[in-house]
Amino acid sequence: MADAVPRLADAETIQAIMRATPLPLNVMIVPGLAPPDALRELGVRRLSAGPYVAEVAYASARRSARDLLARGAYEPLLSADLTYADANALFARSEAPSPEASRR
Predict the structure, then answer these.
(1) pTM of the model
(2) DSSP 6
(3) Do 64 and 72 meet the contact criterion of CB atoms below 8 Å apart?
(4) pLDDT at 16
(5) Are 79 and 92 within one domain?
(6) Nearest-CA neighbor of 18 among 37, 40, 36, 49?
(7) Dihedral of the alpha carbons of 38, 39, 43, 45, in degrees to the nearest 10
(8) What are phi and psi of 35, to 5 degrees?
(9) Domains identified in the chain, total number
(10) Which of 4, 29, 48, 67 could make an SS bond with 73 (beta carbons 3.0 to 4.6 A apart)?
């Protein structure tokens, strides 16, 4: 089990929570949050991006669609630097045990 505290950004508060609980602390990205290395030093076990990665992707898609509809601009849609192979690799199980390993 893990302890998650919403809207937590202050290093002193993070330290106080770490001292008060034996549970691993999960922190969600919020404005003013320390960089990941500093959080690791404070003892934070997991950093969550929450909905922000999806929101950035949707905002980019919206800008590209608006550019296409308003100006006939293809460039934003054609300039993506993520190939199908790259996208598929994001969902690959790199640490999954092989079937042979699970039979041992």
Answers:
(1) 0.63
(2) T
(3) no
(4) 93
(5) yes
(6) 40
(7) -140
(8) -65, 160
(9) 2
(10) 67
State whether 42 and 59 are in the same domain: no
CB 43 within 8 A of CB 19: no
Predicted pLDDT at 77: 86
Q: What is the largest CA-CA distance in the chain?
A: 60
CA angle 60, 83, 62 (to 5 degrees): 15
Residue of 62, 72, 33 whose CA lies nearest to 49: 33
Same domain, 43 and 56: no
Tokens of 18: 């770490």
Question: Where in the sequence is the domain holding 84, given as residue range(s)?
Answer: 52-102
Split the chain (104 residues) into runs of 10 and give each run's mean pLDDT: 71 92 91 93 90 93 94 89 88 62 41
pLDDT (0 to 100) of residue 99: 47
